[in-house]
Every structure is written in structure tokens, then in C-alpha cells.
Write a structure and sequence with these properties.
two-stranded antiparallel ribbon, seven-stranded mixed β-sheet, Cathepsin D, subunit A, domain 1, about 120 residues, mainly beta, globular
Length: about 120
């Protein structure tokens, strides 16, 4: 598919005035969840709702991280989703569930996100 990044704004679910722009978030349809630096989520007051959730990494290693809830926006598209508290050394990722919630799909040729539309009839 190719690798590309997008800008994303993350908001506290309850206090929307608390937000942060993530200028370089890796678009990763191979990741179910969106991963945001724990320092950013903590600064926004995002609460760790699920703790010690196990994730199997591409190298086969299993790690545990916490999950909270946030509003995520890319351009005019937004959704509420679970976000993983990424620890130092983890990548910040925009995952498949968030993309689906926003109604966006990657355009690998143009290296950008586009609105998904109805599937044309054959």
C-alpha cells in the first residue's frame, strides 16, 4: 500500500476545548487501533478506561497498553474511538477502526485519505 502520514486532531471526549494536533500520524490499516503518545493523551485528560490490554506486535512480541476514549478529526471527518496510550518507542498510528469511523480510505497512489463512497454496481 505504501507508507504515508496525515495530520490528526485529538479531543478530550467530554471537554472538547482540550485538544492537540498530531502533525505526523502514520496511516496504518494493518493496525486495528489508533495509537497516540501517552503524554499527549494525559495532557488532554483522556482517562485510561481499559488497562493492561494485550497487543501482538508484527514481530510476534506481546505487549500491554492502556486504552481510553477520544474524538479524532482528520480534516472535516471525525469519529469517537478507543485510543491506545502509546509509550516511548511506540509508533503513533491512525488505525483501521478510526478510519472506518471517519468514512475514510487510503489512496495509496496519491498518499492521502479520501472519503469512502458506495461501491459502484457491476
Amino acid at each position: 500500500m505504501g507508507i504515508f502520514y496525515t495530520e490528526c486532531v485529538v479531543y478530550n471526549l467530554v471537554k472538547r476545548q482540550r485538544s492537540a494536533s498530531i502533525p505526523k500520524l502514520l496511516v496504518d490499516t494493518g493496525s486495528e487501533h489508533t495509537w497516540i503518545a501517552e503524554a499527549v493523551l494525559e495532557s488532554l485528560g483522556v482517562v485510561r478506561e481499559k488497562k493492561d490490554v494485550a497487543f501482538q506486535m508484527a514481530n510476534g512480541k506481546t505487549i500491554t497498553r492502556s486504552i481510553g476514549f477520544a474524538v479524532l478529526r482528520v480534516g472535516e471527518h471525525f469519529t469517537v474511538d478507543e485510543v491506545v496510550f502509546a509509550e516511548p518507542g511506540d509508533l503513533q498510528l491512525l488505525g483501521a477502526r478510526t478510519l472506518e469511523g471517519m468514512g475514510l480510505v487510503p489512496d495509496p497512489r496519491k498518499k492521502r485519505l479520501v472519503a469512502s463512497g458506495p461501491i459502484p454496481a457491476a
